[in-house]
Each structure stands twice: as C-alpha cells, then as structure tokens.
Design brief:
Keywords: ATP-binding, DNA damage, DNA repair, Nucleotide-binding. This is DNA repair protein RecN. The chain is α/β, with parallel strands linked by helices and 551 residues long. Among the domains are: 200 residues, P-loop containing nucleotide triphosphate hydrolases (Rossmann fold, 3-Layer(aba) Sandwich); 161 residues, no CATH class. It is built from 17 helices and 15 strands. Strands 2-1-4-5-6-7 form a 6-stranded antiparallel beta sheet, with helices on one face. Strand 5 and strand 6 form a beta hairpin.
Length: 551
C-alpha cells in the first residue's frame, strides 16, 4: 500500500506531500491542473526513465519518494532479501534526478539500479493509464488471469519445475546423441590405433631399456676384450696386481712393531687388495655374461623399429607416453560401448518427465477451461453495468504443445456489437472499451489474488451517467480488498471516494505552481457539484452531490 508520496522540483510542482487512504483514493481537478503530472512523478520511482527537462528549477535536484506499507507481502520480502536490501514493514523508494541529468535510485536508502526499481515496483503498484491497454491483449496477461481465477499457483510451480527438468534432460540427451555420433565416426580409427598398440604389447620403459641393451650387444666384443685385460692384469698376469699387493702387505707386516704408522699402512694395503680381488671377481662375472648374440640384436632392432614408428606416429618421445595413449584409447572405446546404455537411461528419464509434465499440464488446462465460461459470464455482466450492454467477452482455450506455462493457448475474444463476430481482443476493442474491460477483469481477479496497489489514470474517459456510476461502484468494491488510486473527471466516481484529493494551480511568487490537498466532506460535496454543473453549482447539483458523497 502506498502511504505517502513526496514530490519535489518536478515539472510545475515545487514540493508536495500526499498521504493516501488504504481504500479508494480519488484525484480530481481541472484539465491542465497537473493531475497526470502526479502520475508522471510516481512513474519515476516505478523505474521509468527521466531527463533534466522535468526539473522545475534547473539548479536543484528533483526528488520523488514513496513510502509503502508491505505487511504480508511475501514476494516483496523475498525480492529485498534476494537483492540484499534492508527489510522492514515500511518500504521507502526514492528517485533523484540531478541538474546534470544524473539519475539515482534508492530502496530503503540503499542505492538501487533502474531495473531493480522496476522489478520491485511491479510487486507494489499496477499503474493503468487511459491508453495503457496493450497488456489486456497480451497472451501472458490473459493466462495469468485464468491461473489466478483457477488458483493454479502451486500446480503451476510444480509443473514449471518438471518442465525445466524435462528441457534439461532433453538437452543432455541431445548431447549424448551428438557424442555417440562423434564416437561412431572415430570408433574404427581409434580401434585400429588401440589394436596396433595392443599388438605391440609394450612394457613400461621397454624401448629405453632395449636401446641400452642394443648398445651393449653392438659393442660386446670390445667390452669383453677390455674386461679380459682388466681381469688378467688384476689376477693372472706375470705380476698380478692382487698378488703383488698381498706380498707387499706381508712384507710390511713383519715390521709393524717398529713404526707406529706401519700397521695403518698394512691395513690399507690389505683393504685395497680385498677391494681389487672383489673387482676382479665382478669383472669376470660381467665378462662371462657379455656375449655377442646376432639373433638377439636382430630381434631388438625389429622391436625398436616398431616402437620408434609408433613414437613418431603419435608424436611422443617415451614408452610411458605410448602406454598412456593406449589407456586413453581404451577409455574412448569403452565410452562408445557405454554410451548406448547412457542414452537409453536418459531417454527413459526424458519420457518419464514428459509424462509427468503432460499430466500436470492437462490438469492446468482443465482448470483454466473450467474458469473460461464463469469469467466471461461475470465480465459480460459487469460490462452491462459500465455502459457496454452489447459488448461480450469470450475466452477461447485450446490445447498447445508443452511450453513454460503448460499446454494451453488462451485468447480473449471480443464482440463489441453483439453480432456474434468474436475477434481477438487486441485487434477490435477501442481504447475506452479496453479500459472498462480491464477494470472489470481486475475487479474479478482481485478476489482471487493479492494484487498490488491499483492506479487508474483517467480510464473512465468516454463514459458518463449510469455507466460512470457503475464504474464507481466497481472501484468502491475493489477498494474494500486493496488500495485503489484513480484520477477521474466523473462525479459519479469521485462521490465514492474514501479520500478525495483536489489538484489545482496557484500563482505564487510570479510563478504557476501545482498543489494538492485532501478535501473535507463539505469540500468534497462542493467539488462533486462543480463536476456536475460547473464552477457555480446549483442547489440541485449540490443536493445531488451530497447524495453521491453520503450514500
């Protein structure tokens, strides 16, 4: 509910404060007094764009601030929480336009973007101007009307969750099918590569070890010759080094008591002799193990040729890298074998979700269809009240493929002249007809859904007399359930006000300014009488006005 509207330095408004009633607020005034300027200022905090042309004084900033009471507005609280704004029972939305044209928005004194103002405002205020009737012909609005009357909120939420899951599963299935197509194209080639590596049957570090062995075998004769010479010099020559060291150690051993350093030298000679003896034995063992083997060399050359070919083919350097490629190819081939099972499981998931979504979509469709005739009947009854006795509304609902809101195509059809030629509402209804039709529909929807504050800016243009009276009755009934603010020129509507505001111009400091004040009961009677008969109302007009206001 809009409690207070503060406007400063906007168009011909210097500064005004308006405190609204929670029920039916009526705004009247002479043409050009500035009634619609109020709505223009209000639209700023609803997220509309503005420029410096709206500034009354170009050296001061324009400020528009609205105070809203948001008790019980769960969607508003959720929005504030989701956007990190302060939460309280009173919500303050402010818009400032600087002389330089810079615009700033605030929600509870926290800076907010224009988009955030728009999103929040849509939860708080429904502003309907005289020619702002395109919404009524919009398919989404028509669907919302039917769902509100059918109380489909919970069912629609459940359906939309299933629909999103179904769409996601479809995308995943398409991805799997695309992967299968790619796998199938590459399968034969990957299988060839895998078989080739499997046939090679390489072991870890095999090529590196075979290369080292080939070097050994290719130089085996020279290696054996060097080993034999070494062994001969150590153990079998005319003066074997091992035997010579033993003799030298024994000679010195006889004299170890005569010099303190001799025992140490003897020990070192003995250790060296033992080490050389061990070396000689190892040289002999290695010599015995080294053989020239032509067949082995040929086999290694063939094995290395196969390995080097594979290394070059796959652009790698080591046996380990080839083995990793072999493992990767195995995984790719396994993926081809497993993907059919994954596709089958995903197809079942898609089918199950589609069935569930279709079931709920059918239920939504049936509940909407169930509201079509009652809505048309009630709206047509109200249309007679508001001066359109020949106009008729018909709700056409047909089945459609699954979409975000179910499986229904909803079209409001309109016959303005009772000739049974129903056409889509957006094509045939005039502005005045759409305005009254919108009022009728919103008054019915208001009984089923928590609409925000409803603001009507001169939607009663083109009606008078009994039709205007009935519009006033409908607005009054609507205002018992939620706040309604209406700008009107019709006395029959103004007489229904819970709070009557009068907009007027005044000359002050050689400048024209717009101001607004709430009328007392007697002032209301006089204002309604002037709307009936002119600036100087007759006694009959005053009596008629008194009856309108007090009835």
């Amino acid at each position: 509910m809009l409690q207070r509207l503060h406007i400063q330095n906007y168009a011909i408004i210097d500064e005004i404060d308006v405190l609204f009633s929670p029920n039916l607020n009526i705004i009247t005034g002479e043409t050009g007094a500035g009634k619609s300027i109020l709505m223009g200022a209000l639209s700023l905090i609803l997220g509309e764009r503005a420029d410096t042309g709206i500034l009354k004084f170009t050296d001061k900033k324009c400020v528009v601030e609205g105070n809203f009471l948001m008790e019980g507005k769960g969607v508003v609280k959720a929005f504030l929480e989701g956007n990190d704004f302060e939460i309280s029972n009173e919500l303050i939305i402010r818009r400032e336009i600087s002389p330089a044209g810079k615009s700033r928005g605030f929600i509870n004194d926290t800076p907010a973007t224009l988009l955030q103002l728009k999103q929040l405002a849509s939860l708080l205020v429904d502003l309907h101007r005289q020619f702002d009737t395109l919404e009524l012909g919009d398919a989404d609005f028509q669907r919302q009307v039917m769902d509100a009357l059918a109380k489909n909120d919970d069912k629609l939420n459940t359906y939309q969750q299933l629909f999103r899951q179904w769409q996601s599963s479809q995308q995943q299935l398409q991805k799997l099918q695309g992967q299968k197509n790619n796998f199938t194209k590459e399968f034969d080639y990957n299988n060839f590569l895998y078989t080739e590596l499997s046939d090679a049957n390489l072991k870890e570090n095999e090529l590196e070890e075979l290369d080292a062995e080939l070097q050994l075998l290719s130089n085996s004769e020279e290696i054996k010759s060097a080993l034999s010479k070494t062994y001969y010099a150590l153990k079998e020559g005319e003066q074997p080094i091992v035997s010579t060291l033993r003799q030298l150690a024994n000679q010195l051993q006889h004299y170890h008591l005569y010099h303190t350093q001799l025992p140490q030298l003897v020990q070192r000679l003995q250790s060296t002799q033992v080490e050389l003896q061990d070396i000689a034995d190892e040289v002999e063992s290695i010599n015995d193990a080294v053989h020239f083997d032509a067949e082995r060399i040929e086999w290694i050359n063939e094995r290395l040729a196969t390995g080097y070919r594979l290394l070059k083919k796959h652009g790698v350097q080591t046996t380990t890298e080839l083995l990793q490629i072999h493992a990767d190819l195995y995984q790719k081939l396994q993926a081809v074998l497993n993907i059919d099972e994954s596709i089958a499981n995903k197809e079942k998931e898609v089918t199950d979700l589609f069935k569930q979504a279709t079931t709920i979509a059918k239920q939504l469709h049936e509940t909407r269809c169930g509201q079509a005739a009652p809505l048309a009947q009630q709206v047509n009854k109200l249309l007679v009240q508001v001066g359109m006795p020949n106009a008729r509304l018909k709700v056409q609902i047909t089945e459609a493929p699954l979409n975000s809101f179910g499986s229904s195509n909803i079209e409001f059809l309109f016959d303005a002249n009772n000739n049974n030629r129903f056409e889509p509402l957006r094509k045939v209804a005039s502005g005045g007809e759409l305005s009254r039709l919108m009022l009728c529909i919103k008054s019915l929807v208001a009984q089923s859904v928590d609409l925000p504050t409803l603001i009507f800016d001169e939607i009663d243009t083109g009606i008078s007399g009994e039709a205007a009276k009935q519009v006033g009755i409908i607005m009054k009934q609507l205002a018992t359930q939620r706040q309604v603010i209406a700008i009107t020129h019709q006395p029959q509507i103004a007489g229904r006000a819970d709070a009557h505001f009068f907009v007027y111009k005044q000359l002050k400091d050689n400048a024209i300014k717009t101001n607004i004040r709430m009328l007392s009961q007697e002032e209301r009677i006089n204002a309604v009488a002037q709307m009936l008969s002119g600036e100087k109302p007759t006694a009959a007009a005053l009596e008629n006005a008194r009856e309108m206001v007090l009835s």
